[in-house]
């Protein structure tokens, strides 16, 4: 015969009630998000990409006056930021350099609508390769087809968000693409 256990209905130890409150209280405090720090590009990697003259559409924004917005994500520390760059510009953030050679978008009367940018991405090596820069991407990226040309890197993602430019007949001085 088994011994009988004495139980009291409706009685719960105090720790059963306090534990969920402590867990929920700990979840509400979020750590401060780290910020990316922009640094200089090494002299040997500075490059005048020299914007190439695009076919001239009468009244369209010249290449050197366009502004591309690129997204940059550091997956290691979850820092995401927008880079606003003009064609020919390079930007270094930590151990990544992003170069923009050109940005384009289709005219409002053309279908399908697309926004693209020609981008190069370089990453500084770690360990034995420290100080050496390796090109991990060079090509056109497209806003609506990000998987067409993708930056394949374990730490960084780069993508096109916009190309601010205008065409004849558009309202606004520098209309941008619709998202």
Report the order of strands and helices: HEEEEEEEE
Mean pLDDT: 79
Helix content: under 10%
Helices, by number, come to 1
What best-fitting shape do the alpha-carbon axes yield? extended
Rg calc: 26 Å
The span between the termini is 74 Å
Account of the 3D structure:
With 179 residues, the chain is mainly β. It has one helix at 14-28; strands at residues 38-39, 67-74, 79-85, 90-93, 96-105, 115-124, 133-142, 156-164. The strands form two sheets. Strands 1-4-5-6-7 form a five-stranded antiparallel beta sheet, with no helix packed on it. A three-stranded antiparallel beta sheet has the order 3-2-8, with no helix packed on it. Strand 6 and strand 7 (133-142) form a beta hairpin. It is extended, with a radius of gyration of 26 Å. The model is unreliable at 50-55 (pLDDT under 50).
Key features of this structure:
8% helix, 179 residues, mainly beta, five-stranded antiparallel beta sheet, extended
